[in-house]
Amino acid sequence: MSTAGPSQINGDIPSIRVFTMNCWGLKYIAKHREARLNEVSLRIARASPSFDIVALQEFWVYADYGNLRTKTSSILPYGKFYFSGAIGGGLVILSKWPIEQSSMFGYPLNGRPTAFWRGDWYVGKGVACAAVRHPSGKTIDIFNTHLHAPYEKNDSYLCHRTAQAWEIAKLLRGAVQKGHIAIGLGDFNMIPSSLAHRIISTHGLVSDSWLSANPTTPSITPPKTNAKTNIEVLGATCDSVLNTWRMSTPTLPPPETEDPKGKRLDYIFHAPRYSSVQDIRIGMTEPMSMPSQKGGKGGAGGYCSLSDHFSVEVTLSLAPNQQQQNALAEARNPDLVSNSTENEQYLPPTIIDEILELVAKYTKRENFEYHWRLYHFWGSLVALVGLHVGVWWSPHNGVSFALMFVACAVAVTGGLDGLIGFLFMGSELRALKEFEEELKMYRHLAAKAHGASSSRSHVSGSKVALVTNGATEGTFRSSNSADEVRIDIHESV
């Protein structure tokens, strides 16, 4: 367990316990789904101390949600299952206190319908939003999400995921600016050195809870780190060798086993203006008994992990802690410490330029595909006319049948490309244009703030800093040079 130290315990100031987990609850696909999700529900209900807010991802089946509510209603009497897309977004929020408002915000950029085997476009990924009134009178705005997964080594979905991070950052930012206690949590499918993480933690006016409590945590997992260290020190939630759905051996290896693929993909972000971290840990690591698990994916030891992800569990104090934020800023860049949590924050213009370059490159690719599909559609119409003329004049039934068969194939493929081009790709290109325009306006403000900041303090060329109005605040570990940070960015791409 990782703690923020005694200075984070603010006397009788109220605190809340927050939980998030990707539950891998795909119907027909996820193995032992009902038994695993039932165990997740039981462990949430039995947690001591109990949780006040719970956010779940990949909780697709409404019957599983009904069972969850039955098991947890005594401690979490309020809940919402969010509906989105063609088959649902799999997002759930539970609360100890009444949910006064809720909404489902769909991401404008959300995968491609042609990748139907991945399903991201069909589930309608977005942000499940809930406003909860705490007994202290404060409003807690909860934003539960599941960003687009990379899937490929080349990560052709990086632009979509970055745009999604921008959208949830705007929601978080709005909540913070209203004076609400903002909490953004879920499976973000990003590592701490990624563009998406930088966007959320800067433009969203929030801090990564793990880094608030453990500010010296490296952005990239060091080589040859063992599984126990990955979980307890680095906060790894996914791809751990101690997860039965990821391990390469028939039974779980010792905790000291090297864990080169373990990574932190699940997060709880909090607003440091109004909250601070008392305690944070990675949970749900203990496998459950599963006698029928005798081989294949999930191992052969008669047990299995509750999901392919572990949970993140945080205790937040509903009061700021400037010392904690100073420690975070100092650890990320000791020469540039901001003593103000009220100043506006902006990404460095160089990072914004990198995002704009990413958007431009992806837009060029999609523009090519958009025109290719439309050319195919219009060409198919011409081909159909020619094929029907051929059928009309053909003296042989066999030839006529073959021409009609080809005409059907041309009609189907051309029609699909027309629909995809006109409807999906047209809307995608407009969403990309909107994202680009917002970034350009943001860059103008960031450049002005950067200029004002540069007149007050000298920023070393070997480090990257967040820009604030009148101050600069470090974002990354001081041991990272500018070249090393740049490498991290391209690795995440």
TrEMBL record:
Membrane-topology descriptor: Multi-pass membrane protein
UniProt pathway annotation: Sphingolipid metabolism; Lipid metabolism; sphingolipid metabolism
Cellular compartments annotated: Membrane
This protein's UniProt keywords: Hydrolase, Lipid metabolism, Magnesium, Membrane, Metal-binding, Sphingolipid metabolism, Transmembrane, Transmembrane helix
Source organism phylogeny: Eukaryota, Fungi, Dikarya, Ascomycota, Pezizomycotina
Identification of the protein by name: (Perigord truffle) hypothetical protein
GO cellular component entries: cell periphery; fungal-type vacuole; membrane
Record GO biological process: sphingolipid metabolic process
